[in-house]
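The data layer described in this paper is built around a simple, fixed record for each protein. Such a record has a labelled line for the sequence and another for the backbone structure tokens. For reference, a complete record is included directly beneath this paragraph.
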Amino acid sequence: MTATLRHSAAERLERLPLSGYHRVIFVIIALAFFFDSMDLAMMTFLLGSIKTEFALSSAQAGLLASSSFFGMVFGAALSGMLADRFGRKPVFQGSIVLWGLASYLCSTVHSLDALILFRILLGIGMGMEFPIAQSMLSEMIPASQRGRYMALMDGFWPMGFVAGGLLSYFLLPLIGWRDIFLVQAIPAVFVLAVRFLIPESPRWLEQVGRHDAANTVLLGIEGKVMASLNITSLPEPQRVPTVEGRRAGFFAAFAQLWSPQFRHRTFMIWGLWFFSLLGFYGLTSWLGALLQQSGFGVTKSVFYTVLISLGGIPGFLSAAWLVERLGRKPTCVITLLGGGLMAFLYGQAAVFGGNVTLLIVSGLLMQFFLFGMWAVLYAWTPELYPTSARATGSGFASAIGRVGSLLGPLVTGVVFPITGQGGVFALGAACFIVAALIAGVFGLETRGKTLEELTAV
């Protein structure tokens, strides 16, 4: 028997048993995340070839590697405010169309300026998609499983990274880097699955006062959950703290991030995203090019980068388990400190003769911890804000992180000629240590609590 309007959207969603329907929603959102991540990761594998074709300096290559992140800063900030004002679903669809179009345009370029422009456009689409995916999934999955599924969604990041590397490894010698961008534009048709299979967030509909629409969506979700589990009734809803509805405009949602209740969280999560991504992209965007600089050929450097990236798969799986067992905060600190240590060791391996075994082992462990870090970031961030500002909060945290993302490759391009690979990876390790300190000292534990309980804290 389904609940009526006397129960809130949160109460009706939280009482739902996890079902095949939840997993379908998860897979669709996670696949969109996968294709987006593959596009973003591709520069790691193609930068060396593009650098050679256009005869780029290290600084120019760093600018190209950072170009997507310029767009992501704008896209992440804009999409969060749009989604809190107009809904999660339409913004999510628009982001997929935009990055598909931009990937196609990247395949047509014959100048560095054009490629940078279209990579910025691609970044806007990707920046829009990431925080909306976080908000949509966090608002659909019950609290008892939310952290695990959010972390598992982020696991499609390393899989997208590995898929991008495999695509490059097999196709780059055959069709060149332009046609690889063309191939990556094809998954944009995936927007059709979002259009027909993903509902608008009932929490958001209720928050903006569209109670009849929220009830209609909830009835559909409840019916699909019962059909998926082959049951005829659902558990009675349990009391969840009531959150006052507010129709947040662009600036109202942003202002909420800096209200006395949430500004401590905002400072913490912005600092965590900034330093984590500054270190991560300062290193990973250059992995293939730095291996080539150490004397490895293009094909071999791509192969080693893909191999190293495989460490991210057990990394995010471990983090998905730990965020519900240990909590978000300790898992975040562990992954950042582990990633920092392994990044430092990887840099030393590169300095002392480029020993292949040491490079691969330290690289695998580095990616194990760093992709675990990503899983925690994506699980933790949307839990810190209310429904009226969740997408805005996630979007601006991501945007601040993208500032770190675009600075990372630029800094690497400038620092590398001065300090070599050892200095580059030591700098990355320092960024991760700073991020770990921010999470450990200022972080709020959110494990096991509903989104509404966290809003009331």
